[in-house]
Amino acid sequence: MSQMSTIEWTDATWNPVRGCTKISPGCAHCYAETFAERFRGVPGHAYEKGFDLRLVPEHLEDPLNWSKPKTIFVNSMSDLFHKNVPENYIEQVCWVMQKANWHTYQVLTKRSERMRDFLDAHPEFGELKNVWWGVSVENKKHGLPRIDHLRTAPATVRFLSVEPLLEDLGKINLKGIHWVIAGGESGHGARPMEAEWVRSIREQCAAKGVDFFFKQWGGQQKKKTGRTLDGQTYDAMPERISLPVLSRTERMELIEELKA
Protein backbone atom coordinates (compact mmCIF):
# COMPACT_ATOMS: atom_id res chain seq x y z
CA MET A 1 0.00 0.00 0.00
CA SER A 2 2.73 2.44 0.94
CA GLN A 3 6.49 2.19 0.89
CA MET A 4 6.83 4.99 3.43
CA SER A 5 5.39 5.53 6.90
CA THR A 6 5.52 8.30 9.49
CA ILE A 7 4.80 5.79 12.28
CA GLU A 8 7.83 5.89 14.55
CA TRP A 9 8.30 2.13 14.94
CA THR A 10 8.06 0.99 11.32
CA ASP A 11 9.37 1.79 7.83
CA ALA A 12 6.37 1.08 5.62
CA THR A 13 2.72 0.06 5.68
CA TRP A 14 0.97 -2.63 3.63
CA ASN A 15 -2.81 -2.79 3.46
CA PRO A 16 -4.17 -5.87 1.67
CA VAL A 17 -7.34 -5.16 3.70
CA ARG A 18 -8.97 -1.73 4.14
CA GLY A 19 -11.55 -0.63 6.65
CA CYS A 20 -12.68 -1.97 10.01
CA THR A 21 -15.33 -1.73 12.74
CA LYS A 22 -15.07 -0.59 16.36
CA ILE A 23 -14.91 -3.24 19.11
CA SER A 24 -13.44 -1.55 22.22
CA PRO A 25 -12.67 1.86 23.81
CA GLY A 26 -9.33 2.05 22.03
CA CYS A 27 -11.23 2.39 18.75
CA ALA A 28 -13.19 5.49 19.77
CA HIS A 29 -10.99 8.00 17.96
CA CYS A 30 -9.56 5.72 15.27
CA TYR A 31 -7.06 7.65 13.14
CA ALA A 32 -7.54 5.23 10.23
CA GLU A 33 -11.30 5.75 10.15
CA THR A 34 -10.91 9.53 10.36
CA PHE A 35 -8.49 9.48 7.44
CA ALA A 36 -10.52 7.09 5.28
CA GLU A 37 -13.86 8.83 5.76
CA ARG A 38 -12.44 12.08 4.37
CA PHE A 39 -12.42 10.44 0.97
CA ARG A 40 -15.77 8.64 1.00
CA GLY A 41 -17.44 9.21 -2.33
CA VAL A 42 -14.32 10.49 -4.10
CA PRO A 43 -14.29 8.52 -7.38
CA GLY A 44 -11.16 6.44 -7.91
CA HIS A 45 -9.66 7.15 -4.50
CA ALA A 46 -8.31 4.23 -2.46
CA TYR A 47 -10.90 5.11 0.21
CA GLU A 48 -13.79 5.92 -2.10
CA LYS A 49 -15.87 3.62 0.12
CA GLY A 50 -14.63 5.26 3.30
CA PHE A 51 -13.81 2.86 6.11
CA ASP A 52 -16.07 0.04 4.95
CA LEU A 53 -14.17 -3.22 5.25
CA ARG A 54 -13.00 -4.70 1.96
CA LEU A 55 -10.27 -6.95 0.63
CA VAL A 56 -7.65 -5.49 -1.70
CA PRO A 57 -6.16 -8.54 -3.44
CA GLU A 58 -4.37 -6.40 -6.03
CA HIS A 59 -2.06 -5.27 -3.21
CA LEU A 60 -1.19 -8.75 -1.93
CA GLU A 61 1.95 -8.76 -4.04
CA ASP A 62 3.35 -5.43 -2.83
CA PRO A 63 6.11 -6.78 -0.52
CA LEU A 64 7.35 -9.03 -3.33
CA ASN A 65 7.86 -5.91 -5.45
CA TRP A 66 9.90 -4.14 -2.78
CA SER A 67 13.51 -5.24 -3.19
CA LYS A 68 14.90 -3.13 -0.34
CA PRO A 69 14.37 -4.82 3.07
CA LYS A 70 11.84 -2.97 5.19
CA THR A 71 10.01 -3.26 8.48
CA ILE A 72 6.36 -3.37 7.42
CA PHE A 73 3.27 -2.65 9.51
CA VAL A 74 0.61 -4.98 8.10
CA ASN A 75 -2.88 -3.44 7.79
CA SER A 76 -2.30 -0.08 9.40
CA MET A 77 -5.75 0.78 8.02
CA SER A 78 -7.57 -2.37 9.10
CA ASP A 79 -7.35 -5.54 11.20
CA LEU A 80 -6.24 -8.74 9.48
CA PHE A 81 -8.28 -10.82 11.93
CA HIS A 82 -11.58 -9.00 11.51
CA LYS A 83 -14.42 -11.55 11.44
CA ASN A 84 -15.26 -10.63 7.84
CA VAL A 85 -11.79 -11.38 6.47
CA PRO A 86 -11.91 -14.97 5.11
CA GLU A 87 -9.38 -17.39 6.55
CA ASN A 88 -8.04 -18.33 3.14
CA TYR A 89 -7.30 -14.65 2.52
CA ILE A 90 -5.38 -14.43 5.81
CA GLU A 91 -3.43 -17.48 4.62
CA GLN A 92 -2.54 -15.63 1.40
CA VAL A 93 -1.26 -12.64 3.36
CA CYS A 94 0.85 -14.98 5.50
CA TRP A 95 2.14 -16.79 2.41
CA VAL A 96 3.44 -13.48 1.07
CA MET A 97 5.15 -12.74 4.41
CA GLN A 98 6.70 -16.18 4.31
CA LYS A 99 7.99 -15.82 0.74
CA ALA A 100 9.08 -12.15 0.92
CA ASN A 101 11.11 -12.94 4.02
CA TRP A 102 13.77 -10.26 3.53
CA HIS A 103 11.23 -7.93 5.12
CA THR A 104 10.18 -7.86 8.79
CA TYR A 105 6.40 -7.74 9.33
CA GLN A 106 4.46 -6.37 12.29
CA VAL A 107 0.91 -7.74 12.54
CA LEU A 108 -1.25 -5.98 15.14
CA THR A 109 -4.81 -6.93 16.11
CA LYS A 110 -7.57 -6.32 18.62
CA ARG A 111 -9.14 -9.65 17.58
CA SER A 112 -6.66 -11.63 19.64
CA GLU A 113 -8.75 -14.78 20.01
CA ARG A 114 -9.06 -15.20 16.26
CA MET A 115 -5.35 -14.59 15.78
CA ARG A 116 -4.52 -17.19 18.45
CA ASP A 117 -6.85 -19.74 16.86
CA PHE A 118 -5.44 -19.04 13.39
CA LEU A 119 -1.85 -19.50 14.55
CA ASP A 120 -2.79 -22.64 16.46
CA ALA A 121 -4.11 -24.04 13.16
CA HIS A 122 -1.15 -22.68 11.14
CA PRO A 123 1.91 -22.81 13.44
CA GLU A 124 4.20 -22.56 10.42
CA PHE A 125 3.23 -18.89 10.13
CA GLY A 126 3.56 -18.16 13.84
CA GLU A 127 7.06 -19.61 13.80
CA LEU A 128 8.31 -17.26 11.07
CA LYS A 129 11.22 -15.29 12.52
CA ASN A 130 10.53 -12.31 10.25
CA VAL A 131 6.93 -11.86 11.46
CA TRP A 132 6.11 -10.17 14.77
CA TRP A 133 2.61 -10.83 16.12
CA GLY A 134 1.05 -8.23 18.39
CA VAL A 135 -2.10 -7.12 20.19
CA SER A 136 -3.45 -3.71 21.18
CA VAL A 137 -3.78 -2.97 24.89
CA GLU A 138 -5.65 0.19 25.88
CA ASN A 139 -7.05 -0.73 29.31
CA LYS A 140 -7.40 -3.56 31.80
CA LYS A 141 -10.82 -4.85 30.77
CA HIS A 142 -10.22 -5.24 27.04
CA GLY A 143 -6.44 -5.14 26.70
CA LEU A 144 -5.08 -7.47 29.36
CA PRO A 145 -7.06 -10.53 28.15
CA ARG A 146 -5.56 -10.00 24.69
CA ILE A 147 -2.09 -10.44 26.17
CA ASP A 148 -3.09 -13.84 27.52
CA HIS A 149 -4.39 -14.87 24.09
CA LEU A 150 -1.15 -13.71 22.44
CA ARG A 151 1.02 -15.51 24.99
CA THR A 152 -0.56 -18.86 24.18
CA ALA A 153 -0.23 -18.41 20.41
CA PRO A 154 2.69 -20.19 18.70
CA ALA A 155 4.73 -17.11 17.77
CA THR A 156 8.46 -16.41 17.62
CA VAL A 157 8.14 -12.68 18.37
CA ARG A 158 5.22 -11.23 20.37
CA PHE A 159 4.59 -7.54 20.99
CA LEU A 160 2.12 -5.19 22.64
CA SER A 161 0.94 -1.85 21.32
CA VAL A 162 -0.18 -0.06 24.47
CA GLU A 163 -1.70 2.87 22.59
CA PRO A 164 -3.81 4.74 23.34
CA LEU A 165 -3.02 4.06 26.99
CA LEU A 166 -6.26 4.98 28.74
CA GLU A 167 -5.57 3.97 32.34
CA ASP A 168 -3.01 2.50 34.71
CA LEU A 169 -2.69 -1.16 33.70
CA GLY A 170 -1.26 -2.25 37.05
CA LYS A 171 0.91 -5.36 37.04
CA ILE A 172 1.25 -6.86 33.55
CA ASN A 173 2.19 -10.46 32.88
CA LEU A 174 5.01 -10.02 30.35
CA LYS A 175 5.97 -13.68 30.16
CA GLY A 176 6.59 -14.57 26.51
CA ILE A 177 6.38 -10.93 25.39
CA HIS A 178 9.38 -9.49 23.55
CA TRP A 179 8.47 -5.86 22.84
CA VAL A 180 6.14 -3.20 24.24
CA ILE A 181 5.18 0.05 22.51
CA ALA A 182 3.49 2.66 24.72
CA GLY A 183 1.87 5.93 23.78
CA GLY A 184 -0.92 8.40 24.33
CA GLU A 185 -3.83 9.21 22.05
CA SER A 186 -3.43 12.03 19.54
CA GLY A 187 -5.76 14.19 17.51
CA HIS A 188 -9.08 15.88 18.19
CA GLY A 189 -10.65 14.78 21.47
CA ALA A 190 -7.52 12.90 22.57
CA ARG A 191 -7.92 11.35 26.00
CA PRO A 192 -5.13 12.22 28.47
CA MET A 193 -2.40 9.83 29.57
CA GLU A 194 -0.66 10.08 32.94
CA ALA A 195 3.13 9.86 33.18
CA GLU A 196 2.97 7.35 36.02
CA TRP A 197 1.05 4.91 33.82
CA VAL A 198 3.91 4.95 31.31
CA ARG A 199 6.64 4.78 33.94
CA SER A 200 5.03 1.67 35.39
CA ILE A 201 5.15 -0.07 32.01
CA ARG A 202 8.73 1.04 31.41
CA GLU A 203 9.85 -0.29 34.79
CA GLN A 204 8.08 -3.61 34.32
CA CYS A 205 9.70 -4.05 30.91
CA ALA A 206 13.13 -3.28 32.37
CA ALA A 207 12.60 -5.82 35.15
CA LYS A 208 11.67 -8.55 32.66
CA GLY A 209 14.18 -7.69 29.93
CA VAL A 210 11.47 -6.67 27.46
CA ASP A 211 12.29 -4.08 24.79
CA PHE A 212 10.44 -0.80 25.48
CA PHE A 213 9.51 1.83 22.88
CA PHE A 214 7.85 5.08 23.91
CA LYS A 215 5.97 6.40 20.88
CA GLN A 216 4.39 9.67 22.00
CA TRP A 217 2.60 11.67 24.68
CA GLY A 218 -0.11 12.49 22.16
CA GLY A 219 -2.69 15.22 22.62
CA GLN A 220 -4.08 17.49 19.94
CA GLN A 221 -0.57 18.63 18.95
CA LYS A 222 1.61 15.58 19.39
CA LYS A 223 4.66 17.22 17.81
CA LYS A 224 4.72 19.74 20.64
CA THR A 225 4.33 17.17 23.40
CA GLY A 226 7.02 14.98 21.84
CA ARG A 227 8.13 11.48 22.77
CA THR A 228 10.70 11.82 25.52
CA LEU A 229 10.02 10.25 28.91
CA ASP A 230 11.89 11.70 31.89
CA GLY A 231 14.30 13.37 29.48
CA GLN A 232 15.07 10.22 27.51
CA THR A 233 13.93 8.69 24.23
CA TYR A 234 13.11 4.98 24.31
CA ASP A 235 13.50 3.23 20.94
CA ALA A 236 14.29 -0.39 21.83
CA MET A 237 13.02 -3.05 19.42
CA PRO A 238 13.64 -6.76 18.84
CA GLU A 239 16.52 -7.58 16.54
CA ARG A 240 15.45 -7.92 12.93
CA ILE A 241 16.79 -10.89 11.03
CA SER A 242 18.68 -10.36 7.79
CA LEU A 243 17.82 -12.62 4.86
CA PRO A 244 18.82 -12.31 1.19
CA VAL A 245 16.50 -10.60 -1.28
CA LEU A 246 15.32 -12.86 -4.08
CA SER A 247 16.23 -11.95 -7.64
CA ARG A 248 13.69 -10.05 -9.73
CA THR A 249 13.03 -13.21 -11.75
CA GLU A 250 12.33 -15.23 -8.61
CA ARG A 251 10.08 -12.52 -7.23
CA MET A 252 8.10 -12.30 -10.46
CA GLU A 253 7.61 -16.07 -10.42
CA LEU A 254 6.17 -15.85 -6.90
CA ILE A 255 3.83 -13.05 -7.98
CA GLU A 256 2.55 -15.22 -10.83
CA GLU A 257 2.08 -18.09 -8.37
CA LEU A 258 0.12 -15.78 -6.08
CA LYS A 259 -2.16 -14.72 -8.91
CA ALA A 260 -2.78 -18.26 -10.15
UniProtKB/TrEMBL annotation:
One short Pfam name that applies is DUF5131
Q: Which domain of life is it from?
A: Bacteria
Q: What is this protein called?
A: Phage Gp37/Gp68 family protein
